[in-house]
Design brief:
Elements (H helix, E strand, L loop, with lengths): L9 H21 L3 E2 L1 H4 L1 E8 L5 H10 L4 E7 L6 E6 L6 H16 L4 E9 L1 H29 L5 H22 L2 E2 L1 H31 L5 H33 L5 H40 L1
Parallel strand pairs: 1-6
Antiparallel strand pairs: 2-4, 2-5, 3-4
Length: 299
C-alpha cells in the first residue's frame, strides 16, 4: 500500500479551492446565472415537424413573424426535425405567445404538418418562487447532512464535510455561469445527486478513520487521516471512474435535452473526489487540533 501524504497537500489544494470559490461567488454577483424557463418564467415549446426544415430556416421564420424567441435549438439528429423554442417573458401574455408559435407554423407548413411534444408555460412569479425553493432545498440538504454526520461520528467531522459540499456546489454553479449553460430544475436535481454522492464517499473514509483511531490510539491525527485515505483510495478510484464513465457517455452522446444535467454530474463527480480527499478529511484534522487547543486553553 502506498503512503501518500494527502493531508500535507491541504495548503496548496486549499488555496486553489479558495480561488475557485471566490471566483465563482464574484461571477454570481457580477455576471449571474443563465436561468431556464423554470426559474425566470417564460414558454418552452418542443415541436416536431413532419417535413425537413433546417434550424436556420425555422429561426428566420420566427424572427420574420416577430415571435419573442430567446433561444432555438435542434434536438437529436437533424433528420428527426425536432426543435426546442424558448420564448421571453416580457413580451406580453405567455399563452398568446405560445399560440403565436402554432399559428406561424400552421401558416407556413399547413395544419397537421407538426406535433407539439411539449408546451411548458411558467409565469415570472412562479419562476421566482421555484428559484427560491430550489436554493432552499440545497440549503436544507446540506444542513441535514451536517446533523447526520455530527450524530453518526463526532462534531469534528461535520465542518470538513460541509465545507467540501459547499465547495462543490459553489464551483459547479461557477462553471454554469462561466459557460452560460442554462440553470434549471434538472440542474438542481443534479446538484442534490452530487451532494449525496460526495457525502457517501466522505462517509466511507470517515468510517475508516474511526476504525483506525480505535485500533491505533497512539497514531496522530495526520497519520490516521493519511492512512484512511490511502486504504480507501482504490475503492474511491474504481467507484468514481465507473460513475464518471457513465456520465461522460451521456454528456457526449445523450443528446441536448440531458446534456446540461450530465455536465453538472461530470464536474460534480470530479470535484466530489477532489474535495473529499483534499478538503473534507484535512479540515477534520485542523478542526480537531483547534478544538484541543481551545480545550487546553480553558483548562
Amino acid at each position: 500500500m502506498k503512503n501518500i501524504d494527502y493531508v500535507g497537500k491541504f495548503k496548496v489544494a486549499g488555496l486553489l479551492s479558495l480561488l475557485l470559490v471566490v471566483g465563482s461567488i464574484v461571477m454570481f454577483f457580477t455576471k449571474g446565472l443563465n436561468y431556464g424557463v423554470d426559474f425566470r418564467g417564460g414558454v418552452e415549446i418542443q415541436v416536431k415537424l413532419k417535413q425537413p426544415v433546417s434550424l436556420g430556416e425555422l429561426r428566420d421564420l420566427m424572427i420574420q413573424k416577430n415571435v419573442a424567441m430567446s433561444q432555438l435549438q435542434s434536438i437529436g439528429d437533424e433528420s428527426q426535425n425536432e426543435f426546442l423554442l424558448k420564448l421571453e417573458t416580457d413580451k406580453g401574455d405567455l399563452n398568446a405567445i405560445s399560440s403565436q408559435v402554432s399559428a406561424v407554423l400552421n401558416e407556413k407548413f399547413g395544419a397537421g404538418s407538426f406535433d407539439i411534444l411539449k408546451n411548458d408555460i411558467v409565469g415570472p412569479k412562479a419562476g421566482a418562487q421555484l428559484r427560491t425553493s430550489a436554493f432552499q432545498a440545497l440549503a436544507w440538504a446540506i444542513l441535514a447532512i451536517m446533523i447526520y454526520l455530527a450524530l453518526r461520528f463526532d462534531y469534528k467531522f461535520a465542518p470538513g464535510a460541509i465545507a467540501a459540499l459547499l465547495h462543490d456546489v459553489i464551483i459547479i454553479v461557477g462553471a454554469f455561469i462561466l459557460t452560460q449553460k442554462e440553470f434549471s430544475l434538472q440542474i438542481v436535481a443534479a446538484l442534490l445527486a452530487i451532494i449525496g454522492y460526495s457525502v457517501n464517499d466522505t462517509v466511507v473514509i470517515y468510517d475508516r478513520v474511526r476504525e483506525i483511531e480505535n485500533a491505533n490510539p497512539s497514531l496522530s491525527s495526520f497519520q490516521v487521516m493519511n492512512r484512511a485515505l490511502n486504504e480507501t483510495m482504490s475503492r474511491t478510484i474504481i467507484t468514481s471512474l465507473t460513475v464518471l464513465g457513465v456520465s461522460l457517455v451521456m454528456l457526449f452522446w445523450g443528446g441536448s435535452v440531458i446534456h446540461d444535467f450530465f455536465f453538472a454530474m461530470t464536474v460534480g463527480v470530479i470535484l466530489g473526489v477532489y474535495s473529499t480527499i483534499f478538503i473534507a478529511v484535512p479540515m477534520t484534522v485542523f478542526t480537531e487540533k483547534f478544538s484541543n487547543k481551545n480545550a487546553s486553553a480553558s483548562a
